[in-house]
Design brief:
Layout (H helix, E strand, L loop, with lengths): L3 H10 L12 H14 L12 H8 L3 H13 L3 E4 L5 E4 L4 H14 L4 H14 L1 H7 L2 H19 L5 H13 L4 H24 L3 H17 L3 H20 L1
Antiparallel strand pairs: 1-2
Helix pairs in contact: 2-4, 3-4, 5-10, 6-10, 6-12, 8-9, 8-11, 9-10, 11-12
């Protein structure tokens, strides 16, 4: 809850950071300006924005236009709008799920090729192996082996699941116990799955070999053998790269 003193201090801090906008796309320009101020650190999580009336005066627009911009910011989870005597628009801290969703949307709609996805995976997945070998817990190893077991069962029935393969690689990143890496891996799940399905269409045998290499990788991680784990994953991803390049 803001006190009168903190409100006055916050008002002084935001006096000179807003600039007037031109008619036409005013609400979008206000949204972009406030978003940039948040990203640049001029506005921080917990900061209370000036009132709609004050913002309208500073931007040179009506309160209706300001309200439209604030609703857009709220929809993008950048501000929270509270009502009441101590209400207003407050800058919110980004959540990991919201950031992850944004990355997923970006990757899914950007038209990346299978080659680009696979090259990115090679850089990313090989790079995290030292952390995975250092930090993987018994629970991580057990869950990865369970995915391997399901992959073996599918292969034994003459089929293979690219969903399980993509899930395996995402779970490996989680074993790094680094939230940023896990978030990136989760964002790559969809594009990775699509590229693996494309590979499977031309190379149906890939599932059986992948399942075997997954297990070899897990056993190397269990022993903390970075060199062995890296060698297995490099071979594994290298084959996928050759397939997508034709």
């Amino acid at each position: 809850m803001s006190t009168d003193g903190s409100t006055t201090s916050n008002r002084r801090a935001t006096d000179d950071i807003f600039t007037k906008v031109t008619p036409g796309r005013a609400s979008e320009m206000i949204l972009d300006q406030i978003r940039s101020l948040i990203r640049d650190g001029h506005l921080k999580p917990g900061d209370r924005l000036p009132s709609e009336r004050e913002l309208g005066d500073r931007f040179g627009v009506s309160r209706v236009t300001v309200r439209e911009a604030l609703r857009g910011l709220e929809a993008n989870a950048m501000v929270t709008i509270k009502v009441g005597a101590h209400g207003g628009a407050f800058v919110t801290a980004p959540t990991s799920s919201r950031v992850s969703e944004g990355i997923v949307d970006l990757l899914s709609m950007s038209g990346l090729t299978d080659i680009e996805i696979t090259e990115a995976r090679q850089v990313f997945e090989l790079g995290i192996i030292p952390l995975v070998c250092e930090r993987a817990t018994e629970a991580d190893i057990e869950e990865l082996l369970q995915i391997c077991d399901r992959g073996d069962a599918a292969a034994g029935q003459g089929s293979s699941s690219m969903e399980l393969s993509a899930q395996f690689h995402t779970r490996v990143a989680e074993a790094s116990h680094n939230a940023a890496l896990a978030m990136l891996a989760e964002a790559f799940y969809g594009p990775t799955l699509v590229s693996l399905r494309h590979v499977q269409e031309g190379h149906p045998e890939i599932g059986v070999r992948s399942s075997r290499e997954h297990r070899q990788f897990v056993m190397a991680v269990k022993k903390g053998d970075v060199e062995k784990a890296t060698a297995v994953m490099r071979t594994h991803l290298g084959r996928t790269a050759r397939h997508v390049k034709g």
